[in-house]
Amino acid sequence: MRISKLTPSKRGQDRWILQLEDGSFLQVGKNQMADFALYDGRELTEEELEDLRRAERHDRFQSYALRVLMDTPMSRKRLVEHLCRKACPEEEAQAIAQRMVDLGVLNEGGYAAEVARQYAARGYGPRRVRDELYRRGVPREHWDAALQEVEDWEEGMDAFLRKRLGGTAPDPKDLKRASDALARRGYGWGEINAALRRYGAEIEEE
């Protein structure tokens, strides 16, 4: 198959539009230009053309992965899911995800720590953070280190109670509702009782 025309793309730098003699088009990058020695009039064998198309698809998927991660940090599992939804084969998606790890663009440990800090600041406890890390596809091996990145769980709890109780002396029903809310947010009862005492509530010892 002969290349009938090769022109720079107006949609991005280091991109070219390749027109084949059958009238079909293919957008290629600088890597394909160099690897396949592309130029006007070059004859491509069927094998070369298939390899070129495969390389172009891989480059496109990899560029997509980079854009996604720069816009929204995520786990490796989530990135692979995004790529597969774009019709990228899973094996290739895994290879691209590993490439993002090698480049330092995908850092699951750092991502897990950031999720833990954000949720703690919003008043959520360790159990809820673990649930969220699981939901986001972060491997368990990163969970403990992420939780250790939270310097002060008490600060988030105290802020939640101040907002929930309005700084007033609560009655037992208010305390019960606040306690249940903190439990749903992932705190243990010992942590909850300690937070209520810091707030100034009287807690009966069992």
Provide a descriptive summary of the structure in words.
Residues 108-147 form the RecX second three-helical domain. One of its GO terms (biological process) is regulation of DNA repair. It holds the Pfam family RecX_HTH2. It is found in: Cytoplasm. Modulates RecA activity. The structure is a single chain. This protein is mainly α and 206 residues long. Among the domains are: 107-151, Arc Repressor Mutant, subunit A (Orthogonal Bundle); 152-206, Arc Repressor Mutant, subunit A, CATH 1.10.10. Helices cover 60% and strands 8% of the residues. The chain has 10 helices and 3 strands. It has a 3-stranded antiparallel β-sheet with strand order 1-2-3. Strand 1 and strand 2 form a beta hairpin. It is rod-shaped and about 85 Å long.
Give the CATH topology of one domain: Arc Repressor Mutant, subunit A
Helix-strand sequence = EEEHHHHHHHHHH
- Residue fraction in strands: 5-15%
Q: Provide the CATH architecture of one domain.
A: Orthogonal Bundle
Low-confidence stretches: none
Helix residue percentage: 55-70%
Query: What structural class is derived from the secondary structure elements?
Result: mainly alpha
Largest beta sheet: what is the strand line-up?
1-2-3
The mean pLDDT is 89
